[in-house]
Amino acid sequence: MPMPATTKADLWRALEAHRAQIAARHPRELVEDDPGRFERYALEAAGLLLDTSKQLVTDETLDLLVRLARASGLESRRDLLFEGGIVNETEGRAALHTALRNRSGRPVLVDGRDVMPDVEAVLEKMRTFSVSVRDGTWRGFTGERIRDVVNIGIGGSDLGPAMAAAALDARRGSDLRAHYVSNLDAVQIERVLRDLDPERTLFLVASKTFSTQETLANARTARRWLLDTFEDEAAVARHFVAVSTNRERVVEFGIDPENMFEFWDWVGGRYSLWSAIGLSLAVVYGMGAFDALLEGAHAMDEHFRTAPLASNLPVRLGMLGVWNTNFLGVATHAVLPYDEALRLLPAHLQQLEMESNGKRVTRTGDAIDVATCPVVWGGPGSNGQHAFYQLLHQGTALVSVDLILAVRSQARWADHQDAVLANALAQGEALMRGRTLEEARAELIEEGLSPAEAGRLAPHKVVPGGRPTTTIVYDELSPRILGALVALYEHKVFVESVIWGDNPFDQWGVELGKLLAGRILGEIRGGEPADHDPATAALIERVRRIRAGD
Ligand code: G6Q
Questions:
Q1: Which of 411, 160, 124, 118 is CA-nearest to residue 281?
Q2: Interval between CA 247 and ligand 1 midpoint (Å)
Q3: Is residue 202 within 8 Å of residue 236, measured between CB atoms?
């Protein structure tokens, strides 16, 4: 008998051999010949059911994947993450989003110092502030109560809170309204401000660095809009607060440091929803909702930290991501929530996954010789069924899918929900089972078509099936469930990064474009041409001519 594989390289080879073995079977056989599959392949934690029974795996696959995770050092890397070790090597930092939602009472040390008192102090400041806006103690410059809260930020300082606001909005218990401005194109801020009353509007400028071009441009425009009405700089203090790690720049911008909510460099942008970057949520939906969001995420953290690898939700999700990407050739992954409240979740996860694992070198700078993060995209399930699902079912690309569904709706007209559930479950079945040529022909004949007509149409109705699908189910969306769901994906991304060997907490790839934009800005404004490739130089020239009216 051969020795069981134990090293990462051996396990990788064992998975390749195993893949070749199971490829001989139609994927639907894996599921249909295995009646106890759901019980074995569905995991539960923190209010979420993770059904992986429609993935193209067997018990042996899952066993090999868990062994691969272990051989890749997942457990020690996970411990380092939670302990505040330097897991972001290229920036020399910890990545402690888990400390922001740590409800265990355990200290979390960064450079030997417990960060929990700082975390709690900021949460307390958020509590006091959000209560004062909600109960009307905090007033605008003319004494009016605040009605509209505008978060100005971009990327990690926008996508998380905007996504969570959409998710929590059905539970809004006040007249306060949240708005999110991120785009440098002023059409967005203009659209948002058009319906707002300066006397009743509060701006939260959310920027970790407070040096982001898009955010500062929007913040300056917001200030001009405000001062157009008040013509008194003193109004800024009643209508602007900042969320940042950079006090100096906040002061330079003209925001009173008293009105600044702090966070720290060990919080990555796309992991910052749990910090004061979530202030708009606390103000508009209440600190109770924000606390519950943190609790849900903490419950998932505890599960990830302590559950055995084989029954650990983020480990399962991450290792299936590795299996699909590296062994089944999946290059695109769709996130399809059957819950309108989660309509912005695909955009948040797109950043989380693609900015974290869209990498080509390891933590030590060596080339990664396997595929890493797939393209992540998606949208609300119902709508997608009438649009892009065609490609999921019959296109030539193999797309893996996450179906996310609430059993109960947050809406008053709950009678829609039966049909929502039926559609979500049907899609899972169709993506897995598909429809064979014989089935298609038989269905057409049953519908009354002649054998010749049925034969002509049947190939068009063939659905290959075998699309790897995970179904995530929860009772009803709540802040707690949302917290657990987002934390599940954060840790999934971490698990994948350990296998691929990349640093999921840096984002050097976005730097080059920013640098070039700075150069081109001068040219757009009439400055001397800089050094460009001829194609870009010609395009800049053409843009300048159009602007000049030539
Ligand atoms: C996220 C990224 C990025 C960042 C934005 C905004 O992980 O680093 O999306 O959040 O560029 O940065 P600031 O918060 O510094 O404005």
A1: 160
A2: 17
A3: no
